[in-house]
Specification:
single chain; alpha+beta
Length: about 70
């Protein structure tokens, strides 16, 4: 019999603000102000979501308040 293994999706299942922020992130680091403008949200709100993504291993912070995807 054939066994079907489910392939992991390219984007993790995130909802709310964290999901919106994850969609804005790229492999190359972007400054927090660029991300906040692109997401039309306050920097404080963006930072909270980025912290959540960092703790989940989905985002990384780089010098100069720049962030990028890890996964």
């Amino acid at each position: 019999p054939w066994l079907h293994a489910e392939l992991p999706s390219s984007a993790p299942a995130l909802d709310g603000i964290a999901g919106q922020v994850y969609q804005l992130l790229r492999r190359e680091p972007l400054h927090i102000d660029e991300l906040a403008r692109a997401g039309a949200m306050a920097a404080q709100q963006m930072l909270g979501a980025l912290l959540q993504l960092e703790l989940e291993g989905l985002a990384a912070q780089y010098p100069g308040k720049r962030f990028a995807r890890r996964a």
